[in-house]
TrEMBL record:
The keyword Oxidoreductase does not apply. SUPFAM superfamilies: P-loop containing nucleoside triphosphate hydrolases (SSF52540). CDD domains: ABC_MJ0796_LolCDE_FtsE. Keywords: ATP-binding, Nucleotide-binding, Transport. InterPro entries: AAA+_ATPase, ABC_transporter-like_ATP-bd, ABC_transporter-like_CS, ABC_transpr_LolD-like, MacB-like_ATP-bd, P-loop_NTPase. This is ABC transporter ATP-binding protein. It comes from Microcella humidisoli.
């Protein structure tokens, strides 16, 4: 990354244009992500919703540089990912991105605080953790009394809050959250999402959350609906009922298109 000049701060933290990922299987080609052009802002939680197989995970992998597009571009924090080789992409991920998973992904033998500091202790973050920010995060996430506990001594919601602290500790530009409430009950998931949204607003970090759950998406500032690899609709803040209605309308449109295509064959 030393060969690239540092980007200027900008309202847009990530963007993709004409982003496309084709997979070939058994002689057939699937467009898992099909010509998606959109932007993600700092301080905003964006939910990407869609049914199973619609392309949500593939879109997230492309935005994080974990997969390469067949064509199209991704720009993250001012860096064009297609200009980077794999070691540079890994460095960019460690420095500018954070990840939160459905299964928390904490190391079972390490205390909560050791898990939070793990990326730093592995030398992955080039910038040292800002201790005042870390303290603030620990307070905001209600973790102060839990720092010496091992993951199995924490509830699911507490483990996810540790994972959020770990993802935010180095002040990334973007956090990718893959079904972050998938293993939590409704109330605990709601608390985690409220914290995520508040922390996005307070820290200026952009959060991109993949989910198939309209209730989880209703915590977001913006909702993108994906179907068959296409970005089919976009909403601002919306209720779970509005998001469900949108997903249903998209499903009916897709079924009608499939029926038309079958009839003309
Ligand atoms: N490595 C791969 N090789 C072939 N096809 C793939 C590959 N990865 C994904 N696909 C296909 O691309 C499409 C989109 O998959 P993707 O995993 O992005 O969907 P998703 O919306 O995240 O689904 P889910 O909610 O079930 O995780 C699917 O049809 C899937 O089978």
């Amino acid at each position: 990354m030393t060969t690239h000049t540092a980007p200027r701060p900008d309202e847009i933290v990530a963007r993709c244009s004409d982003l496309t990922r084709l997979f070939g299987a058994d002689g057939a080609t699937i467009a898992a992500v099909n010509r998606i052009t959109t932007e993600f802002r700092r301080g905003e939680l964006t939910a990407v919703v869609g049914p199973s197989g619609s392309g949500k995970s593939t879109l997230m992998y492309l935005l994080a540089g974990l997969d390469a597009p067949t064509w199209g571009e991704v720009e993250l924090d001012g860096y064009r990912l297609t200009d980077f080789d794999e070691p540079e992409l890994a460095a960019l991920r460690h420095e500018r991105m954070g990840f939160i998973f459905q299964s928390f992904n904490l190391l079972p033998g390490l205390t909560a605080i050791a898990n939070i500091r793990l990326p730093e202790s592995l030398g992955r973050h080039r910038r040292p953790i800002d201790e005042a920010w870390l303290q603030q995060l620990i307070e905001r996430l209600g973790l102060a009394a839990l720092l010496e506990r091992l993951p199995h001594e924490l509830s699911g919601g507490q483990q996810q809050r540790v994972a959020i602290a770990r993802a935010l500790a180095h002040r990334p530009a973007v956090i990718f959250a893959d079904e972050p409430t998938g293993n939590l009950d409704l109330a605990t998931g709601g608390d985690v999402l409220r914290l995520l949204t508040e922390l996005a607003h307070e820290s200026g970090c952009g959060i991109i959350m993949v989910t198939h759950d309209p209730r989880a998406a209703s915590a977001a500032d913006r909702v993108l609906s994906i179907r068959d690899g296409h970005l089919v609709a976009e909403l601002g803040r919306a209720s779970a009922a509005e998001i469900s209605a949108l997903m249903l309308a998209d499903a009916i449109d897709a079924d009608a298109r499939d029926a038309d295509a079958a009839a003309t064959r």
